[in-house]
Amino acid sequence: MDIVTLLGLAVGLSLIIGAIILGGAVDVFINVPGMMIVIGGTLASILVAFPFEEIIQSFKAAFKMFVGRKSRTRDVVNIMVKVAEISRREGLIALENVQTENMVLKKSCQLIADNADPSLIRSTLSIEINSMRRRHQVAQDVFKRLASLAPAFGMMGTLIGLVQMLSQLDDPKSIGPAMAVAILTTFYGSAMSTLFFIPIAAKLKARTLQEQLHLEVIFEGAKSILENNNPRLVYEKLSSFLAPVERETQR
């Protein structure tokens, strides 16, 4: 579970709610019609903009970002070193029996066991990288679009509120409350975009770059094992992917 991401969202939400509570009445920030315009309009527009399957996959990707186990680059490096140790101790053919939930790593081990040409491994992993990029790009696009739609519908709600307010100018006492309600929808849209949609899109992009780096580590590790399955040499080569501090704590 990504505790830091959850903590960031919780802190941001708490600060906003805390500022509202300290400012006085909380009920003035609750407006059901405004929420209907912003939330309902945003969801309706995203259904028009993207296929339903892509929207579902995007929200699943965001959910996995919170609850999924975060893999580190040094963990991938260690795994490839262990693969090198197995290949040196038992031979390349033994890599066919390597058990892992990472399908890309499983495929790489199979290619190593088959003594495949490094160019074949590179082309196979390039396809995996491009496929992963396409899947992740869809999720990023969905949340980027949500980030732009929410403030737009917030402004639309404000315009609706202003029209309703101007239609009641004969009652001066109603102008203040009506203006407050009109501005609330802009607040809803801005809060949803700034606190949720934009950060989630950015986090998904960061995860894409991280997974791409891990695939590169797997490729270089597989190539090194085929060229020279000395675990120490494999580690020395793959350690280039690690930050200096991480290298010092390795092995």
Write up what this structure looks like:
With 251 residues, this protein is an all-alpha fold. The chain has 2 domains: 1-29; 31-248, no CATH class. It is 79% helix and 0% strand. The chain contains 9 helices and no strands. It has helices at residues 3-23, 32-49, 52-67, 73-90, 103-113, 118-166, 175-227, 231-238, 244-248. The longest helix has 53 residues, at 175-227. The two termini are 26 Å apart. The relative contact order is 0.15. The mean pLDDT is 85.
How far apart the termini lie comes to: 26 Å
- Count of domain modules: 2
Strand content: under 5%
Uncertain spans, ≥5 residues at pLDDT below 50?
A: none
Largest sheet: none
DSSP helical segment count: 9
Based on CA inertia axes, which overall geometry fits? elongated
- How do the SSEs run, as a string of H and E? HHHHHHHHH
What's the pLDDT, averaged over the residues? 85
Please give the share of residues in helix: over 70%
Alpha-beta content class: mainly alpha
Query: What is the alpha-carbon Rg in Å?
Result: 26 Å
Count of DSSP E strands?
0
Please describe the structure with a list of short key phrases separated by commas or semicolons:
protein transport, Chemotaxis protein PomA, 2 domains, transmembrane helix, 251 residues, 79% helix, single chain, flagellar rotation, 0% strand, mainly alpha
Summarize it:
It is found in: Cell membrane; Membrane. The protein has about 250 residues and is mainly α. It has helices spanning about 5-25, 30-50, 50-65, 75-90, 105-115, 120-165, 175-225, 230-240, 245-250.
Tell me the layout of helices and strands.
Blueprint: H1 3-23, H2 32-49, H3 52-67, H4 73-90, H5 103-113, H6 118-166, H7 175-227, H8 231-238, H9 244-248
Helix pairs in contact: 2-6, 2-7, 3-6, 4-7, 4-8, 5-6, 5-7, 6-7, 7-8
